[in-house]
């Protein structure tokens, strides 16, 4: 669906992300960041138009107190690195230090390595 209706799907996911970003329930926070990662393949073009804002939101999720949200953020950044080329590369100065900081988190280690490998 995202491949054929990308601008419509992305606008809905982005709206969900904007609303869920500060939700008290960590399941909502994890869901929005996972959704951004999942739709990055089929919604690459509309996502690239808001890439700076999307990255800012996902980097914020990397600092979330809940492990589930941080893991979802690492997954999303890995997906962005795969599907949002070449635009994502221009954001390496803000993204890579955040990914490197997550490598110390033993609970998110695997997802952090995935994000780092995809980005590099």
Structure summary:
This protein has 120 residues and is mainly α. The chain has helices at residues 6-20, 26-39, 44-49, 51-62, 67-83, 92-102, 109-119.
Instruction: Tell me the number of structural domains.
Output: 1
CA(first)-CA(last) distance = 29 Å
> Which homologous superfamily in CATH is the superfamily?
Leucine-rich Repeat Variant
What is the residue-mean pLDDT, rounded to a whole number? 85
Which topology does CATH recognise?
Answer: Leucine-rich Repeat Variant
Q: What CATH architecture would you give?
A: Alpha Horseshoe
Total of DSSP H or I helical runs spanning 4+ residues: 7
Which band does the percent of strand residues land in?
A: under 5%
Largest sheet: number of strands, sense, barrel closure: none
Helix content: over 70%
Order of helices and strands: HHHHHHH
Number of DSSP-assigned strands = 0
Shape annotation: globular
Low-confidence stretches: none
Q: Compute the gyration radius: what is it?
A: 13 Å
Q: Structural class from helices and strands? A: mainly alpha
What is the CATH top level name? Answer: Mainly Alpha
Protein name: Importin-beta 4
Main location: cytoplasm
GO biological process, one term: protein import into nucleus
InterPro entries: ARM-like, ARM-type_fold, HEAT_type_2, Importin_beta
């Amino acid at each position: 669906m995202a491949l054929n209706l990308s601008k419509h799907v992305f606008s809905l996911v982005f709206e969900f992300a904007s609303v869920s970003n500060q939700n008290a329930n960590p399941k909502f926070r994890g869901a929005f960041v996972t959704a951004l990662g999942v739709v990055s393949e089929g919604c690459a073009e509309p996502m690239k138009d808001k890439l700076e804002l999307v990255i800012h939101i996902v980097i914020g999720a990397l600092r979330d107190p809940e492990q589930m949200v941080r893991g979802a953020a690492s997954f999303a950044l890995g997906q962005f690195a795969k599907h949002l080329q070449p635009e994502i590369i221009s954001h390496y100065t803000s993204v890579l230090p955040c990914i490197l900081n997550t490598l110390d988190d033993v609970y998110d280690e695997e997802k952090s390595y995935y994000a780092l490998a995809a980005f590099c």
